[in-house]
Amino acid sequence: MTIRFIAASRLPTPWATFTMHGFEDEATGKDHVALTLGDVSSDTPVLGRVHSECLTGDALFSMRCDCGYQLQEALKRIAGEGRGVLLYLRQEGRGIGLLNKIRAYHLQDEGADTVEANERLGFGADMRRYDLCVPMLDHLGVQALRLMTNNPRKVDALTRDGVNVTERVALTTGLNPHNEGYLSTKAGKLGHMMALDDFTPASGVDIERKG
Ligand SMILES: Nc1nc2c(ncn2[C@@H]2O[C@H](COP(=O)(O)OP(=O)(O)OP(=O)(O)O)[C@@H](O)[C@H]2O)c(=O)[nH]1
Ligand SMILES: [Zn+2]
């Protein structure tokens, strides 16, 4: 693992002014970012989010997934505590890249679910790695995380890689009519610990609850 810290700067957002830390992965040429708020290097576990890039959800307002909603909610919660860390990892499309994600979305438009679409393209359902988090967190002095995620495989992978995850904090937000099926597949096939009833709807969206 060849993660190199490059530079840090202020990053004002609607919720807080974070410090943005830029890292380069010399092996892949990808760049990754960490946002921190407050003193994250004391030994009290830090509220954290390990977020995988989703250009469509994070930047283009896509309602197909819950990524953009989770990103905003995570930053708001960190701002609420005045302390926390968000790692923004450039592993778009669960690691298959943007163009393959668009291919996968095309298959989903024709009826495949998110897992079947990846498999039809010859990929595993989830190709992400989390080992790069260790040098990033070490650089920031983060010793333990209260991790905002619904994904138990993410907790397991981080723990295996040596990250001390003391608590999993649910992050169920952004339900809307376009991502209901996707969220159900994540819960059913990818093992995410969440039920649609737990979700807060995306703002301005009226979800009809069944049962
Ligand atoms: N291949 C593929 N990737 C997707 C799709 N929808 C979202 N993604 C990517 O999935 C990643 C986010 O993963 P999720 O499974 O939504 O969530 P997670 O990170 O595992 O779990 P949480 O921590 O609970 O958010 C991002 O890299 C997205 O670009 C899809 O239909 N196909
Ligand atoms: Zn997404």
UniProtKB/TrEMBL annotation:
Residue ranges occupied by any GTP cyclohydrolase II domain in the UniProt entry: 8-169
Required cofactor names: Zn(2+)
Give me the reactions it catalyses: GTP + 4 H2O = 2,5-diamino-6-hydroxy-4-(5-phosphoribosylamino)-pyrimidine + formate + 2 phosphate + 3 H(+)
Q: What is its pathway? A: Cofactor biosynthesis; riboflavin biosynthesis; 5-amino-6-(D-ribitylamino)uracil from GTP: step 1/4
The UniProt annotation places GTP binding at R49, V50, H51, S52, E53, Q70, E92, G93, R94, T114, T149, K154
Sorted alphabetically, the keyword list is: GTP-binding, Hydrolase, Metal-binding, Nucleotide-binding, Riboflavin biosynthesis, Zinc
Gene3D superfamilies named among the record's database cross-references: GTP cyclohydrolase II
Per the entry, the cofactor note is: Binds 1 zinc ion per subunit.
Q: Which domain of life is it from?
A: Bacteria
Is Oxidoreductase among the key words of this record?
Answer: no
> Which residues does the Swiss-Prot or TrEMBL record annotate as the active site?
D126, R128
The UniProt entry's sequence similarity note says: Belongs to the GTP cyclohydrolase II family.
Q: PANTHER family this protein is in? A: 3,4-DIHYDROXY-2-BUTANONE 4-PHOSPHATE SYNTHASE (PTHR21327:SF18), GTP CYCLOHYDROLASE II-RELATED (PTHR21327)
Q: What does this gene product do?
A: Catalyzes the conversion of GTP to 2,5-diamino-6-ribosylamino-4(3H)-pyrimidinone 5'-phosphate (DARP), formate and pyrophosphate.
Q: What is this protein called?
A: GTP cyclohydrolase-2
